[in-house]
Amino acid sequence: MLQKKIIYITSFSFVFLLFFLGFSIYFFNKPAGNGSRKIDLIVKPGWGSKVTADILEKENLIKNSYFFRTLLIITGNRNNIKKGIYPINNSMSSSKIIDILTSGKTKVIKITIPEGFNNRQIADLFVKNGFFSTRQEFLAFAANKNILKAYNILGNDLEGYLFPETYYIPVGYEKQKVIELMVNTFFEKVSNIPDFPQNFKERQQLIILASIIEKEAKLKEERPIIASVFSNRIAENYPLESCATIQYLFEKPKNPLLFKHLKIKSPYNTYINKGLPPGPIASPGLEALQAALDPAETQFKFFVVKKDGSHHFSKTFNEHVKAKRYEFLH
Description:
Elements: H1 2-29, E1 38-43, H2 49-58, H3 65-74, E2 84-89, H4 94-103, E3 108-112, H5 119-128, H6 135-141, H7 145-150, E4 166-170, H8 175-190, H9 200-216, H10 223-235, H11 243-247, H12 286-293, E5 302-305, E6 311-314, H13 317-329
C-alpha cells in the first residue's frame, strides 16, 4: 500500500508539475500589452539569452525574463539570437519575439541616391537617415585610402564610384561597409557594360566624363549627343566649357552662373582649363557611363539649354551665339 501511495503521489506530482509548467509557459508566452509599447531593440554582439531577456522584461515587452529564457531552451534557440536591430512591440507573444530575434531579419532603412548626386549630397542623405553623424564623417570614409587601394581607384576619394541606386541598409550597419556596398554595386553594374575599360586611368577618365554628362543632360536621349560634343571638343583641343564643373565648386548651385564664376581659378574650371577636370563631379548612372563610352557620331561642338530642359546643339560658334540669343529672347 505504501509503495502504491508513493507511486500515486509521484505520478500526481509529475502531472501537476507538467500542468504548472504548461500553464506558466502559456501565461508568460502571452503578450505583455496591447501594442502601445514599441521599440527598436538593439541586440549587440556577445549578448546572451539572459541579457536579452532582462532588457525585454525591463522594457515591458515580455512578462518574465526567466520564462522567456526557458522558452528559448525548450525551442532550441538559446544560442540562436542574432545581433541586429529589431522592431518589437508588446502585442507580440514571447514566441513571436523569439522568432524575430533568431531570424536575423534586422530592421533596414531605404535610401535612394539619385543619379548626378555628388559625395557631399550623398553624405547629407546618409546623415539625414542616421547612418553617419556628420557630412565630414561620411566624406572621411569616402576617402579611405584602404578602399581606394582595394579597388584600384585613382584620385583622393570615391567621387563617381558611389553608385546611384536604392539601397536597403540594416540599421547599425558598419559605416565602412555602407561605403563598400555602394562601390561594390558600381563595379557589379559596370561589369555588364561591354568594353568597359579595365585600365585604371582609362576607367577614371571615362567616369569623369560620364559624371559631367550626367550633370548636363536632362533628357535620356540627349546623353550620347552631349557626350559627342565633349568628345569633339577634346579631340580638337577645345576647353569643355561645362557649367556643371563650375557648379561643382559651390555648396549650392548658382542660378544663374555669372561671368565672374567662369573665371574662378580651379582645376575643375573647364572654361580656363583644357581637358577633363582632375576627378568626377558626381555619381553617373549606367546611361551616362554608356554614353561616355559610346558617344553619338556628330559634328556638334556647342549646346545651350532650352527652357524645357532640352538642348539646342550647334556645329559652329556663330550658330551657338544665335541659339543663345534666341533662347534669351524667347
